[in-house]
Specification:
By secondary structure, the chain is mostly helical. The protein has a domain of about 60 residues. The protein is built from four helices and no strands. Helix 1 packs across helix 3 and helix 2 crosses helix 3. The longest helix is centred in the first third of the chain and has 18 residues.
Length: about 100
């Protein structure tokens, strides 16, 4: 089974192909809904990607999401858990700050 990220990349590829053929965004969304059903991206997202692929948006046309700065996806790393466990065992009155 494909992950949701893989499904998004596939749908963006379909949008890129159909936009290159000259299909309109509502037509692309209607065609994709018949194939993907509930898993289809929204019509607003289809319009956004059609704009990007037709060159109206100055960004590069990449299918994968760019890495973003900020909080990591998961803060629960085994190394962090072990470090915190050692701190708590050393001093049971340790504060969060």
């Amino acid at each position: 089974m494909a992950t949701s990220n893989d499904l998004l990349i596939k749908q963006r590829s379909v949008i890129e192909f159909l936009a290159a053929e000259g299909c309109s965004a509502p037509n692309i969304h209607a065609r994709m809904e018949t194939v993907y059903g509930e898993m289809c991206i929204s019509d607003c997202a289809v319009c956004k990607w059609v704009r990007i692929f037709k060159g109206e948006d100055p960004r590069e046309t990449i299918l994968r999401d760019r890495k973003r700065s900020g909080r990591p996806l998961s803060a629960s790393v085994t190394a962090h858990r072990e470090k915190i466990d050692c701190m708590i065992r050393a001093n049971r009155r340790v504060k969060q700050k």
